[in-house]
User: Which sequence fits this backbone?
């Protein structure tokens, strides 16, 4: 498997985790020659468990990394639904980083609209004024083809202004969320999606073989795919 192959099908999740990790390391070490801060967007779901097994073993310039969230639920950090809380519990404590390395939402604001604007302001602070794009976004995909908190046929998909938008009526609970816009994701330098499980195999086939764009994940350009054998079973 080439480290820069666009479609990587890997039978074993431990090997998948390692291949993903080493590609991240390769990208980061390339970018650090060109810039001081490297931005890495994280997604929830099964991606956390894949990263936990490899990220602590990587030789990365940790002080120069800024982790943020591709999307986040507008819930308290004490909630099991909080992506930040899950990463803090499972992964961040194992990494040589501090609070300044992680950009998160403020769940105590009065509304999800305010939360989205506040999060956008924080993200703007870590972007280079000469380069208004994120470096790496790590995405997942739901069984309905959603990615981040961009769901099929949802109005949030059509938001083109700004880095971030909000969702008040997510078809998957909890209903209120903050998410990068599709435009922001597409402008990112490296877009990597990790998909596992047979329940997602039909959409994987439609997007990769049939070039369908009816699902949000099919509207992300130049994706690097990491698939387990179940997700790839219909290719």
Assistant:
């Amino acid at each position: 498997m080439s480290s820069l192959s666009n479609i990587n099908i890997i039978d074993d999740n431990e090997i998948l985790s390692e291949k993903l990790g080493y590609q991240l390391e390769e990208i980061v070490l390339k970018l650090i020659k060109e810039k001081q801060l490297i931005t890495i967007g994280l997604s929830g779901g099964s991606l956390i468990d894949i990263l936990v097994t490899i990220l602590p073993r990587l030789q990365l310039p940790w002080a120069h990394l800024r982790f943020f969230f591709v999307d986040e639920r507008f819930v308290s950090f004490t909630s099991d639904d909080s992506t930040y809380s899950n990463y803090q519990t499972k992964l961040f404590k194992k990494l040589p980083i501090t609070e300044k390395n992680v950009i998160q939402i403020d769940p105590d604001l009065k509304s999800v609209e305010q939360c989205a604007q506040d999060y956008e302001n924080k993200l703007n602070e870590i972007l280079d004024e000469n380069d208004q794009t994120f470096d790496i976004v790590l995405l997942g995909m739901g069984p309905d083809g959603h990615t981040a908190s961009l769901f099929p046929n949802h109005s949030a998909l059509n938001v083109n202004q700004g880095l971030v938008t909000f969702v008040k009526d997510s078809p998957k609970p909890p209903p209120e969320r903050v998410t990068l816009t599709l435009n922001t994701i597409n402008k990112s330098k490296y877009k990597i999606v990790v998909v596992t499980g047979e329940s997602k195999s039909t959409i994987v086939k439609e997007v990769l073989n049939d070039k369908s764009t009816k699902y949000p994940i099919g509207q992300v350009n130049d994706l690097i795919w990491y698939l387990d054998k179940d997700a790839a079973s219909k290719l």
User: Anything to note?
Assistant: The beta strands are 7-10, 38-42, 65-69, 71-73, 136-139, 164-167, 177-180, 190-195, 223-228. Helices lie at 13-31, 47-52, 83-90, 112-126, 182-187, 201-208. The first strand starts at residue 7 and ends at 10.
